[in-house]
Specification:
By secondary structure, this protein is mainly alpha-helical. Helix content is 52%, strand content 0%. It is globular and about 55 Å long.
Length: 141
């Protein structure tokens, strides 16, 4: 069974690396495109596990915000891992990628935040013709 990777591909990671990534190929060392694919699959599986613990089983139909958080978590983690392998953990930007991954992971592991966001419905009501005072609740316009 293939792992759903939330639309991330190797080029997304290569474009975020703070180095010239044109030299990274299928057989390059210490980081190769194959290794990056493995890392993407690993982080995707972890994200799916986090979402399932939060009660979200259909990961292919997430709202835009949750989908973006998952992609940030995966991409930031993989970029930081690639920088680790290339002995670039002292390079500027490394801490930023680790911090972004940690923040996204915190949101994904907080079931209350996810359920509140996923439970929000989108309305097809034309609000331009209806006074806002008629709406109550936690709607966002």
């Amino acid at each position: 069974m293939a792992i759903y990777n939330f639309g991330l591909v190797v080029d997304d990671v290569l474009n975020d690396l703070p180095v010239d990534s044109t030299q990274i190929g299928a057989n390059s060392t210490p980081v190769s495109t194959g290794k990056i694919e493995e890392w993407i699959d690993d982080r995707s599986a972890m994200a799916i596990g986090m979402l399932s613990r939060a009660g979200i089983s259909n990961v292919e139909n997430l709202d835009d915000t949750t989908q973006r958080q998952v992609r940030i978590y995966i991409k930031s983690s993989v970029v930081a891992d690639a920088m680790d392998k290339m002995a670039m953990s002292t390079q500027s930007g490394y801490g930023r990628y680790r911090e972004k991954a940690a923040t996204a992971r915190e949101v994904l592991t907080n079931a209350q935040l996810l359920k509140r966001r996923v439970g929000r419905m989108r309305s097809n009501v034309d609000t331009s013709k209806t006074p806002r005072r008629d709406f109550t609740g936690d709607y966002q316009f």
